[in-house]
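Hey, resending since the last one bounced:
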Amino acid sequence: MTAIAVTIAGSDSSGGAGIQADLKTFAALGVYGASVVTAVTAQNTRGVAAIHEVPAAIVAAQMDAVFGDLQVGAVKIGMLGSAAIIAAVAAGLDRHGQTRVVLDPVLAATSGERLLANEAIAALRETLLPRALVVTPNLPEAAALLDAPEATDESEALRQADRLLALGADVVLMKGGHFQGADSTDILVTGTVAIRVIAERIPTRNTHGTGCTLAAAIAAGLAKGQGITDAVRTAKEYVTEAIAAADRLTIGTGPGPVHHFHRWW
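The structure tokens again:
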């Protein structure tokens, strides 16, 4: 059986994040990737110039086409844009019985542009969090979902993870990239255990698309039959290697992408 994963996200015209990063990640990890496009962005390494949301009915039609034909092993959700698209995605997941869902709650681009309307945060929290097997917020995203101050240490990050679990997610991966220190430490939290997933912090400005790539790598692991802990560890290793190799690429004049195909190029 061919391992298949689907990304439901926005398009990054410069290829470093979003749908493009997800499909590269799936391919690099030996998984066939399909896609449901929620938005088209005009962006490059310097920022996002424009966003065009795909109508919710077209998002639903893409989901029906993909899930109605392909034997999908896992779903990664990224940029959604609006409450209407969130509702369409939630209904599609239910319609097609998709439960192995990795939710990356994308609220803003690395360069600062909003990728989810403020009024849609409640819809994300109330509609999609309960449908997620694992949610992968960074510290600002967790704070926005909870309408709380950003965590400044691991103890507060753990408390916020528990609050996200209470909202319905099965597992929370609190990404620690915004913490300081020699290591980049994420915390995998379930209802019974918290596991620190540690990697060396790589000094580079070329980190565009890291969040998308990590969530897609977790989905790839799940599609191949890994359990959530193994999928997260494998994904963390892959992303760390991709960041370490990022400076081998020369892409654009701003913060460039990670090197998705570092093991082959």
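The chain has one domain: 4-248.

Sorry for the duplicate.
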